[in-house]
Amino acid sequence: xxxxxxxxxxxxxxxxxxxxxxxxxxxxxxxxxxxxxxxxxxxxxxxxxxxxxxxxxxxxxxxxxxxxxxxxxxxxxxxxxxxxxxxxxxxxxxxxxxxxxxxxxxxxxxxxxxxxxxxxxxxxxxxxxxxxxxxxxxxxxxxxxxxxxxxxxxxxxxxxxxxxxxxxxxxxxxxxxxxxxxxxxxxxxxxxxxxxxxxxxxxxxxxxxxxxxxxxxxxxxxxxxxxxxxxxxxxxxxxxxxxxxxxxxxxxxxxxxxxxxxxxxxxxxxxxxxxxxxxxxxxxxxxxxxxxxxxxxxxxxxxxxxxxxxxxxxxxxxxxxxxxxxxxxxxxxxxxxxxxxxxxxxxxxxxxxxxxxxxxxxxxxxxxxxxxxxxxxxxxxxxxxxxxxxxxxxxxxxxxxxxxxxxxxxxxxxxxxxxxxxxxxxxxxxxxxxxxxxxxxxxxxxxxxxxxxxxxxxxxxxxxxxxxxxxxxxxxxxxxxxxxxxxxxxxxxxxxxxxxxxxxxxxxxxxxxxxxxxxxxxxxxxxxxxxxxxxxxxxxxxxxxxxxxxxxxxxxxxxxxxxxxxxxxxxxxxxxxxxxxxxxxxxxxxxxxxxxxxxxxxxxxxxxxxxxxxxxxxxxxxxxxxxxxxxxxxxxxxxxxxxxxxxxxxxxxxxxxxxxxxxxxxxxxxxxxxxxxxxxxxxxxxxxxxxxxxxxxxxxxxxxxxxxxxxxxxxxxxxxxxxxxxxxxxxxxxxxxxxxxxxxxxxxxxxxxxxxxxxxxxxxxxxxxxxxxxxxxxxxxxxxxxx
Length: 787
Hints:
Elements: H1 3-19, H2 29-32, H3 43-49, H4 52-61, H5 63-83, H6 88-109, H7 140-151, H8 197-214, H9 231-236, H10 244-256, H11 276-290, H12 323-330, H13 334-356, H14 367-380, H15 382-390, H16 394-408, H17 415-429, H18 432-437, H19 457-471, H20 480-490, H21 499-512, H22 515-519, H23 525-541, H24 547-555, H25 557-564, H26 570-582, E1 612-614, H27 622-625, E2 626-631, E3 637-639, H28 662-666, H29 681-688, H30 694-714, H31 719-728, E4 741-746, H32 750-767, E5 784-786
Antiparallel strand pairs: 1-5, 2-3, 2-4
Helix pairs in contact: 4-5, 5-6, 5-7, 6-8, 7-8, 8-11, 10-11, 10-13, 11-14, 13-16, 14-15, 14-17, 16-17, 16-19, 17-20, 19-20, 19-21, 20-23, 21-23, 21-24, 24-31
């Protein structure tokens, strides 16, 4: 039968379904088979031939027929899994049912009355398959998920058959050990199967259906407790799924082994179409959804460790019930870590490669999913985090993240990408090794829209952060605390900042310490505290190599004197806020010596009008995101959080601060007009007295007269002579006793868990456009907005 006939018959069946007012019996095979038995329709056809309006009409007007359609389609998948799909016809039926369910499921999820449907049992569908007793019948959802899992390891359908002869009847699906059929070499599996286009396509269709099952989460509004586990994910990742381990490994290895360059030959992708990429994307999306697990609230129930292979570490106490999270947290072999890290770094660097060898490789689009995966790895597997930081390989993750941050900074549709990049750097910056690694010289010349500089990866990080703060989209203001916390965390380890980076830091201090900025929002002064802490750390712990920064501080000494003499009387406060109304630019670009951008770079562009974006929940403030620890002499950390009351960046008790209005108050305009908050003399005095200026004032007191003397004596206007003097100068014995180093480490909390959930599903929603699985359905987890 031709494809046109096939489509016509399928469409006829759909019309019959939507026009029948009477329930059709489940036993009426002649009617139901029209949907899957004699048609060959692609997933795009199914979406075109089953319009949304008709699915909703059947749901409202003949609900029993929609229920039967779902039940019959699941039944066919279960039968296919049982039989092992040997004939072409069975394979076609499985694919057709899979596409049909992918089309229909979102419309079942969007209606609260239908939400329990898949979790109810169907009469006569006993677990034993017989008609015997209905007590042990499985809910439809469980039957569907187990069938998908079986079908993903179905010889000659989704995996290579291991049998040589055809006489030997095909492998028995029930006794098959799916661990021998893992899709790709990598973690816990050494054999790389021959690539097979058909198997990849079939896997992809089944994974799309699996992702659609999991997507019920999109139809529930964001809950503050976020402890709500997704029942689909919970069941699929439990011991009930005998393929949990091989499937987890298959997904992880498929993603991490993928090489978009095409066998290492540049421009090869122009000759061969790459059918692997859609599978890799789908695998990455399914993987991050299965790992959506709130580590902050979970107690770890026990798991019978029967399914663990040697790739998983058995020494640790049993992990969470979600086996995917459990397996991820127990990967421990060096070669496995190396494989995963190299794979993620290779894929994240792909868009950078594009910029300096245009079209040499296929440009991948799933970097956001990769960043979520990398985050989950570091968050759930501390051994992996330490492995990442053990060598300079971490820089292969850092550079692409800085590239994405810089590139997306002006685009409001990519605010989510900005947040996840910053969260990852915050997590890494809590470890001493990260700061140490940043001292490696930066020589990769990825064209980026930033000033040219010669220096280290620390310089790159500071220059990019400065660019985000001074020329990013205004919706990034809540991230300023995070960006500066990262700089504070690494500052005690930075051996030598370039002049460009030193000037950028001082420009930020200059911008943040203007009186109108300090007085226009309740939290703005924290940014000044963070920057002063950076300068103090470098002066106290890394004075020797940092003559550029010391010189920049001397040149901009007036900023420190102004801070020390900050006015606190009401008229002065009022006057500062008036000035603000006349000069609305939040951070002047002037005085930062921009310099030319790198050759070949394009400026960061705003979002194209009409771009779709999804809303995000607010992220917790920096005091909730991090936990303060003190670095002891021997380098170990001890937490300071157990102290009697939590204190904020400026040392004042957090309770005094109106932090719930924090988001709004960062926007200077809402200061007193809204009647929420206005600065008082007492308030300014309360934090002004705590500004940590002693070290810098002492440095200026000692060095400024000496530098001025050199200038007068030698009639110098040349800074190289002064820098040479500063390089050989010393302040030993002249500075106050070094303060202990404070690190603010990221700590898991339910606020960020909820943020990750909405961000991840928003990305998945927007990235699945062909077919548009969720488009135009009534999702509740986020809003879809147009720029």
